[in-house]
Automatic annotation (TrEMBL):
Residues 40-59 are annotated as: Disordered. This is CoA-transferase. The keyword Metal-binding does not apply. Gene3D superfamilies: Crotonobetainyl-coa:carnitine coa-transferase, domain 1 (3.40.50.10540), formyl-coa transferase, domain 3 (3.30.1540.10). It holds the Pfam family CoA_transf_3. GO terms for molecular function: CoA-transferase activity. It comes from the Bacteria. Keywords: Transferase.
């Protein structure tokens, strides 16, 4: 059984996270992904540790956990693209590829003859996806863009964190690089759509993706809250701007997320919590009114929630079909029976570490399941294979390129 994208070749000139996240997703679904890396150095994230993967003796390998995050299933080819000989090899591979993915600065690959104009002239069916901080045009196009700053510039931090009125309240970034990850996912979607167009028309195309655009796009309901009212939403901590009660509440031994999504669930919650009078109170009878009167409602709920432990609340509320859940640390996440049942952690064979763990792709296909994951490659692990089979070079030619430091 093969993956849904088997037969597709992706030439991956990207590094760090947004681009590699996209190419890893394509690799999971069966595409052959050739990752181009600098000889002797490779993707910067290879050294972004500790922590590093460990070998059978418990010693660190050269593969940082960060690198292992986004490079599963790829083949690594080391090429010095600053040298004409290296550029020619990359162009030859591009001529035989379906997709090129890159995240260099705007115009950064043109001087190497690896830009869209050059490669599409060689391969008109090529889908070429560029990822930058701010896009290929506009006043900010030449600025570098990094996830943290994009979360700030794109408004996410203005709605994340406790309000200034709370002790220690300040804007906060999300705990993982969501601007990069969302951009990687949008890149995957765009590439698949462009491939569908290519298959229908024979034409490739160029995809321009910007982290700032993506961060703006995923503001979702908060963006529409502003666009429909003209009032910028602020930080509410764990509270929801449009639903009440929908936040984390202290329990007798920790915290519990209460996610009451409609009036019926609110009545069920109040019955369990001993707050039977609240649903009939005109101030709290509907979600619209609960949002307007959250300042008086939330303290009443907090008083009730601290009377039981988190586990006691979960048992009682689940019986009443009230959405709720704990705030798990990652050890509890990966020990969760549902997470285990869904196979969200896998062990992959690795040349130096023996095996390395990976968080599985969450897509469950019925006809083309993701079953052939391979560990992220060692630096240059597949160089000889690709140079022979794709670039059609002889062993002598490869040896000369390696001696010259080009591969």
């Amino acid at each position: 059984m093969t993956g849904a994208l088997s037969g597709l070749r992706v030439l991956d000139l990207s590094r760090v996270l947004a681009g590699p996240w996209a190419s890893q997703t394509l690799a999971d679904m069966g595409a052959e992904v050739i990752k181009i890396e600098r000889p002797g150095a490779g993707d910067d994230t290879r050294g972004w540790g500790p922590p590093f993967a460990r070998d059978g003796n418990g010693d660190d390998t050269t593969e940082a956990a960060y690198y292992l995050t986004a490079n599963r299933g790829k083949k690594s080819l080391t090429i010095d693209i600053t040298k004409p000989e290296g550029q020619e090899i990359v162009r030859d591979i591009a001529a035989q590829s379906d997709v090129v993915l890159e995240n260099f600065k705007v115009g950064g690959l043109a001087k190497y003859g690896l830009d869209y104009a050059t490669l599409s002239a060689i391969n008109p069916k090529l889908v070429y996806c560029s990822i930058t901080g701010f896009g290929q045009d506009g006043p900010y196009k030449d600025r570098p863009g990094y996830d943290f700053m994009i979360q700030g510039m794109g408004g996410l931090m203005s709605i994340t964190g406790a309000p200034d009125t709370v002790s220690g309240g300040q804007p906060m970034k999300v705990g993982v690089a969501v601007a990069d990850i969302f951009t990687g996912l949008y890149a995957t979607i765009g590439i698949l759509a462009a491939l569908r167009h290519r298959d229908a028309t024979g034409e490739g195309q160029y995809i321009d993706l910007a982290l700032l655009d993506v961060q703006t796009a995923v503001l979702a309901n908060q963006a529409m809250n502003y666009l429909t009212t003209g009032k910028a939403p602020g930080r509410l901590g764990n509270a929801h701007p449009n639903i009440v009660p929908y936040e984390a509440f202290p329990s007798a031994d920790g915290y519990l997320i209460l996610a009451v999504g409609n009036d019926s669930q609110f009545k069920s919650f109040c019955s369990v919590a001993g707050l039977d009078d609240l649903p009939s109170d005109e101030r709290y009878a509907t979600n619209r009114k609960r949002v307007a009167n959250r300042e008086t409602l939330v303290p009443l709920i907090r008083q009730a929630m601290v009377t039981k432990t988190t586990d006691e609340w979960i048992v009682a509320l689940e019986k009443a079909n009230v959405p709720c859940g704990p705030i798990n640390t990652l050890d509890r996440v990966f020990d969760n029976p549902q997470v285990k049942h869904r196979g969200m952690v896998k062990q992959l064979d690795h040349p130096t570490a023996g095996t390395v763990p990976t968080v599985a792709n969450p897509i469950k296909f019925s006809k083309t399941p993701i079953t052939d994951e391979k560990a992220p490659p060692m630096l240059g692990q597949h160089s000889d294979e690709i140079l022979r089979k794709v670039a059609d070079l002889s062993d002598d030619q490869i040896a000369k390129l390696r001696e010259a430091g080009i591969v």
